[in-house]
Amino acid sequence: MCEAQETMPRPCRPKGACSRCGGRALYVVRDLVMCRPCFLKHIHHRLGRTMNGPLSGSSRPNVTMRPPAQPGAALIALSGGAGSMALLDFLAERNYFGVAGAEYDITRGRVPPVWARAYAVHVAFPDTWATDGLGAKLREAAESRGLTYIEVRAADVYDTALEERVRAQLDGGVVDSANANASDNASRLDALLASVAAASRPTLLAHILDALLGSVAAALPVSHLLLGETATREAQRVIAGTAQGRGWSLPLDLVTLSSQSVARLRGARELSAKEAALYCHARGLESFSWRARRGGGIEALTERFVATLSARHPATVGAITRTASKLQFTGAGNEPRCPLCLRPADPGIAEWKARASLTALPGRQGGEKAQAEQLEPLLCYACATTLKGRKAAELPPYVLAEAAAQRPVSRDEMRAAIADCLL
Length: 423
Ligand SMILES: [Zn+2]
Ligand SMILES: [Zn+2]
Fold this sequence. Notes:
Layout: H1 3-6, E1 27-29, E2 32-34, H2 36-56, E3 73-77, H3 82-93, E4 118-124, H4 134-143, E5 148-153, H5 162-172, H6 182-195, H7 201-219, E6 222-227, H8 231-244, H9 250-253, E7 263-266, H10 273-283, H11 298-312, H12 316-325, H13 347-356, H14 366-375, H15 381-386, H16 397-406, H17 411-418
Parallel strand pairs: 3-4, 3-6, 4-5, 6-7
Antiparallel strand pairs: 1-2
C-alpha cells in the first residue's frame, strides 16, 4: 500500500474535538479522535508498553516504568519504513540510549539511558540502494540522534570478513560497503536470486536480511536488536509463513527470545502501519516505503490480501496478531537449526520428505549435486520449498558453514572414529 496515502490526516470534522482534551482533533485512530499532542502521547504509550515489558520482565508494563539499564548496547534496524522511523524517534525522544559525551545527572531529574550506546544498521537491497539518497537520509536521521550508522549491502552476505570489517571500520568512524569484492559478491547474489523461482526470491531475501542483521549484531557489543516491524507487517508475515509451511517455528518469530546472546525486540509491533505512518507525519519524519514488491510470491499476495481486507474490516490486523500470539512452540528447543532460515527444523519433516519426495532426478553432476544432497536433509520444510528446483549457484557462506556444523556424521565416519575401540 502506498505510504503517501496512509499519511494523509483525516479531514477535521466540523465539530471535531479531541476525545481526550477537547482540543482541535486532527488524527483518527480506530475509534479515537485526537489532537496532535494527545495522538503523540497515545503512540508513545503504546511503544513504551511494548518495549518496557520484555526489558523489565513485567507482565503489566506501562510507559512511565523505566526499564533497568541493559548490559550491552542497542542495535536499531532501520529500513526507512514508518515503523522503524517511529521507533527510532520514540527511543531518542525518551532517552532510551545514551549519546557519547552527554551527562546524566540523576540529581537534576535526568534519567540514565537504558542502553549506554546505540547503533543503527541499514541493509541495502539491490532495488533500494539506487533509491535517491535513502542511505544518506537514514545516516542523517541516525547520526542527528547520536547513533553510529552502519550500512551493509545484501550482497555482503557473501563477505566472510563482514564482522571484522564492521568492527575495524567502526574504530575509524566510517562503515561502508566499499570492499574489494563488492562487485563479485553482487554478481554472486544476482546469480543466487536468478537460480530460484521468482516467487521464492522475496523469502530468500528476507532470510538474507535476517542473517545480515545477526552478523552485524554479532560484530558489535550489543545486547538487543530492535526491529520496527509493525502489527500490519507481522500479520502479513504470519499469513505468508503459515502458507509456506513455516507454522511449526512461527511462534518463535513472534516472541522476544532472550535466551539468545542478542535479544530481538519488535518495539513497534502494537502499531498498525497506518498509525506508524501518521506518527511520522505528526512528527515531520520522512519515511520510505519500498515494500511495493513487483511480481508474485506469497509475501506479495498476502500483503495485498491483508491491505485490502483491513481497508474494509479494520480489525483484521488485530485479529491475526492476537491469534498468532496464542500460538505455542511445541518443540523441545534442541532441534537442529535449518541452515537457511536459522529457525529450528522440525525433525519429523526429514523422514516425511524422504517418503513423500520422488528420488533425485538424474542429470545433475559433480560437486553441485553433492552440495545439494548434503544440504537438502537439513533444510526445514519451508526452506526446502523455497530452494526447490534451484539451479547451480553459490550459496552464501553462512548457509554452508551452518550446514557443515549440522551435517550428521556418516556411517563410515562413525565406523572410522570407533575403529580402534571395536572388539
Ligand atoms: Zn487532545
Ligand atoms: Zn528453514
